[in-house]
Every structure is written in structure tokens, then in C-alpha cells.
Amino acid sequence: MSPSAISELVQDEQGNITVPTKTMHVSNGHENGAATSNGHSTERVTSNGSKKMEYLLDRHLHKTFPIVTGGKGNDLYLADGRTVFDATSGAAVSCLGHDNKRVIDAITRQINTGTPYVCSSFFNCAIVDELCKELINGTGGKMGRVFLIGSGSEAMEATVKLARQYYYENDKQSPRINFIAREHSYHGNTIGALGISGHVARRAPYEPFLMENVHRVSACNAYRQRKDGESDASFVARKAAELEAKFQELGPETVIGFICEPVVGAALGCVPSVPGYLRAMRDVCHKHGALFILDEVMCGMGRSGTLHAWQEAEGDVVPDLQTMGKGLGAGYQPVAAVLISKKVIGALLNGSGQFVHGHTYQAMPVQAAAALEVQKTIREQNLVQNVKTQGEYLEKRLKAVLGDHPNVGDIRGRGLFWGLEFVKDKRTKEPFDPKLGIAQKLGTTAISAPYNMTMYPGTGTADGYVGDHIILAPTYIVTKDEIDHIVKVTANVVNEVFQNLDLESI
Fold first, then answer.
1. Which of 175, 159, 341 is nearest to 255 (CA)?
2. How much is the pTM?
């Protein structure tokens, strides 16, 4: 994709490229957001309830976005008078929905203590440790400590540094400097996290100064990689052999760890690992003394139908390090974390006694108050079970209604985390030309009247540049009737978009 083409699109925090609402003209004859002499755009509200920001560096400086004025449960209220059903929880974030009074009250109580923030270099706060205890208990005590920060990208940065320090504590000249990650992956926007990522379009502008010690194996994408007649066991064995070969190529003694998402989110559109895959990858890592690292920023904290995605039917596959975010605070505060195994914590306790890393807003009490109340709500209301139950129903209905659609190549996911991949040819799995903007058309159509529902579009699904998908990730409080609504709207949007395409000429 050319730089000029990219400039017309918007990249979100997951690395997807999307098209925002188009600018509209107002009665004074000037385009909204026209440039002023000082270089700022002029803030004007459009007739459709959108506006450009005057001072904010927005997702796209030449586009406008609908204005949200409020929300309740699964609904968002817009300035143009519409109510939009949030079928994606934002970016799989707002797992408890909007305007949850219990969480808001918990935040308010902490703010009213006068200490929404304390400097973690000098002080601790009881509510922070209470949250960490809740999170460790959620692993059945299988993890050891929690590092609290503000975003998924920060969590991956911390994980990369902590993984290296694990070996450095025992050997200041440790040869372990290499990471193995996967193609078509996305782990964050900061330089270190982007270096771990395999999202080619997102990496492209920054390739000259990304880490060179990150090496790749293929993703675990059964839809595009499984051979005819290949069993799960054979597919997993092939993936394990590929990882083993990469260890041997690099030198096993040089590898810090292997990093993957149990369910790949925005980069591939909810592609779950094949049963047995996580265990096989972990076994290869541990065979060579390397760390097994999971990124659950998007797919974790109940989203996949278990509190942690590694808590699978095949039995827990406990990571050495794990990132978490999004559903941790449900959007009520910017908060993320790294779960740290007892093995890794032991190296610090027996060594320097500290993690050589830190943030100003690390372990903020107000963040902890929000995340703790979110997690207690999920646990006490048994919402992970609702994710599992409604997720199974969502899968059933999507496959029944859209499984035979000629341009729906695959419907995949876990829990309330489902992706639909779109193809030009269902037999060959040939993707559409990215110039058609299929995913963007679907997302824009869905959020517009009369549908008024969010879909999360993604591109690069097939090879990092081409391929289209959309994600559905409703809240954990979604009901069966609301699942029916989501499926109905999704089917209508898909049918409308493809009926309006001249497929014969493509």
C-alpha cells in the first residue's frame, strides 16, 4: 500500500486500517475543520452530529467522527439523536457495558480519598495490592506477582524487559538476546512492542529502528494453513517442529522466549489457537530453558470464555509472563498489567530485588479501584459463564445465517470474540483487492442508520496487506435476544454491502 493510500485511512490502536465518517459541509459554505492561519483546524459540528477537533491530533486530521454524548449498558447515545448498539465493546474493552454505577462509585470513592495517584517510588496503597491479590487468585495461585501499568503496549514493553532481566540476574553476560514471535501478529504501538509485532503495515514506517533480535515463525491459522485432511495433532506437531527449527537456527542458548496471542485479535480477526498448540509451544520453550510468553491484552480477562485464555479445556497451560489489558478495567480507567510467574519473580528475589523499569503512573490507586471493581463484578455475577453461554449461541447463529454466504470465508473465535473473514472466492480463499475497502464498507454501513451498530473492521488478514475481516465482541452482559439482534444486523449489513458490489467486474 502506498504512503498516499495510507494517508487516507485511519490506523487504530490494534493496527487496523479503517475509514472514519466523511466530512460534511455546513450552512456557512466552509468545510468543517478548515485550516486557520495558525495551522489549527476550526472546530465545527456537522449536520450529522460529527465534528473535527481543533487541538486534538485525532485519528485522521481531514475526517470527522460521530460525537458520543452518553451511554447505558450496550448502547451509545450520539449527538445526532441516534442510539448505537455497541457490538464490539469498543475495541473489545467495555466488557461491562457503559455507565456501570458500581464501578463508577468505586472510582469516586478512591478519588474522594484525595489520592487517585501516589508515587510508587515512595508509597504503596492497599487497594493496589487488593487488586493484585484478586488477579493472582484468578490464576488459581499459579502466577506470582502483578506489574500494573496503563496500556497494553506498556505491558508488552515491560514484559520484553523483564524477560531479558530474568536471565541477566543470573548472568550479566547472558547470550539470551533473541525473541521468537509470529507473523501477522500485533502486540502494541510503542517501539519495543511494535518490534515484537509482525503486523507489516503497522511496522512499515518504523522498520529502520525496530529491534533486529526478533525472529518469526508462522501464525497458528488453521483456516489458511491447515492441509487437506490434516488433524489437529498433526497441525500442532508441524507448528512445534517449526518453532524447534527456529530455536536451532538461532542457537537455543540465545533465545529469551516465544511470544504469542492464544486468540489473535485485530491482526487476524479472532483466530484461536488449535487445541494442543499452546502446550506444544510451551514444551519447546521449556525444553531449551526459554520463557513462554502470552499476550492476552485483547483476548483475556473473560473475553474468550475463560478468565484467562490459557485456561483451556485441554488443561491449564500456564505462561511464564502474560500481558493483560482491555477487559481488565473495562474502559473505566486506562489500566493494563503483566502477570509474572513465581519462577521469574524468584530470579528477582534472589538477585537484585528490583525490576529495572518503571512508569510515573504505575500502580495508580484510582486505576486499581476501577479494575478491582470490574473483576469483582465479573466474578460475583458469574459473567464469564455468560460469555461462554452467549458465545456458543453467537457462534451457532452466525454460522447458521452466514456460513453459506459466498463471500464469508471463515467464522471463527472463542467466547464473545468472533471474527468473520471475507473472500472473493470461497474455494480458493482469494482475498479482495484492498482498494475495495471491504472491511471499511462493512464497518461504515453498520454504524450508519438504519443499522446503528458497531463492527470492528480489520485489514491485512491474509498476508499483512490484503484480506478483510470484522470482529464482533459484545459485552459480557449481553443477552440472548441481543445476540439475535447482533446476528440479524450483521447479516443484513453483509448482504447489503456485497449486493452493492459489482463482483463480476472485480
1. 175
2. 0.90
